[in-house]
Amino acid sequence: MIDRRGRYFVKDAPLYLRPRIDPPLASLLEDAPFLHSLADALGSPLNVLLPEVVAGNAERFRSVYRRHHLAGRVYFAHKANRSSALVRRLAACDPAAVGVDVASLEELRHALGCGFTGDRVMATGPKDAEFLWLAARVGATVNLDSLTELDQLAGLVRKYRLARTDVLVRLSGFESDTGPGGAGTRLLSRRSRFGTPAAEADGLWRALERHADSVELVGLAYHLDTTGLEEKGRALERCVLLMDECRARGLAPRAVDIGGGFGVGYVEDAGEWQRWTTALSEAVLGIRPPLTWRGHGYGLRNEAGTVRGTAALYPAHRPTAGPDYLDALLSRSAPVLGRPPATLLLEHLHDLFIEPGRALVDQCGLSLARVLEVRPAGDAPDRYLVRLGMNAGDVSLEEHGVLVDPVLLPRGDPGHGPTDDAPVGVHLVGNLCLEADLITRRLVFLPRLPRPGDLLAFVNTAGYVMDFHAHHAQHQPSARTVAVTRDDGAGGPWRWCPDENYWPLTHPQGVPS
Ligand SMILES: *Cc1c(COP(=O)(O)O)cnc(C)c1O
């Protein structure tokens, strides 16, 4: 073929980014008739959750604790998903092992209604007075965002005669002494608008002493929005050192809360990810046809023949994510004290708290969309526009920079014309009258051209993708959410119920055993 500048190029091999799919989700996808019947009855888009998987993930995090002989809780960061089924299933886990991290008054009410007692709840994020009052009232641990919030909480506890409240203080902007040869202090973690800079910790300690009648410091916390093990390892070590400082002053914190951000691997194959990202750079340079809608570069640009900028993309293939990432973080040597964080925590008898969101709901669900229309894209002879019964708010992959292919679930017999099985590049567009309503700006390769009536399954969407940005623009329906379960000894039929009807009982719909 010849491109616009008259150069020859070989027609693209499909650049797949096929998803990583673990067994429960894989066997659900194999039951295409079941998924089609759900979407027929409940409409498109449709979110499908597997509550048993979230319990399995919590157990995998717990096994990392056991391997390192550590005590402490796994707090699910509720903000990753609005579902009741997931929170109820977690509420049914060992109370000493699993808690929930809530970031708003409504998330707190929801968690309590799902069966979490207050002592298993951690309140994070910036808070208003009502949120602080209810958290203190039910005996939740308040993860304080700032000194102002500490003053406000202490004031509420006194004024309304609430019980002394357990608090963590969230720190950020970690610095460390670069030693005798160094130039004083160095910022070791990115700035955050949340938490108190570690350099201002002194003011916090004084305030905690002043408010000792109404709050009790139970630990130090951080949450860093990075995938860097190095940065997180340093912050963890810094917290252990600051804990010593607290103890020397007579405060008695006993837990280090290292937040979330353990990550998820979305794309199965490292080679596919490598090829796609390389091809993106080549497309930005103009040495291959665009891989995206109107040549969008995901933050990369061509400056006189050189690629500049950084791609605003989630690292979709991750060899080490979730519980394995926690294990790696705990095992690698810390820079100042020279020993792994797990050893430091154990020696100091500190509990470890974690707040996984995305990683705890890994493989817990999928989002279904009906194919409504298929037509030539016009920008290249072999590309198509595929319009779906969903919009970019229903599956916010782009918003989070997550690039992964959907799985095509044909309706009935796929048929076998000569071109039916040829891979094809498609642009997935949404159901809004908005040029920008693209499910993904990336050209997606599918093993064959879909037909109206087929379903596309976006897998592994439970973390932030399925409902974080859902809205009601144009009165388009937002997705219903269902929970699916399967009788013990897999192989039995899938059962489903609306998310809000799910309770973690063996026979949720009163089916006799
Ligand atoms: C969002 C958030 C989390 C969860 O982050 P993930 O990347 O989903 O694990 C945990 N703690 C705090 C304070 C957060 O804001």
From TrEMBL:
Record's keyword annotation contains Repressor: no
The protein's required cofactors: pyridoxal 5'-phosphate
Keywords of the record: Pyridoxal phosphate
Database matches in InterPro entries: Ala_racemase/Decarboxylase_C, De-COase2_N, Orn/DAP/Arg_de-COase, PLP-binding_barrel, Y4yA-like
Family annotation (Gene3D superfamilies): Alanine racemase, Lyase, Ornithine Decarboxylase, Chain A, domain 1
Location of the Orn/DAP/Arg decarboxylase 2 N-terminal domain: 71-273
Listed name of the protein: Y4yA family PLP-dependent enzyme
Pfam family of the protein (one): Orn_Arg_deC_N
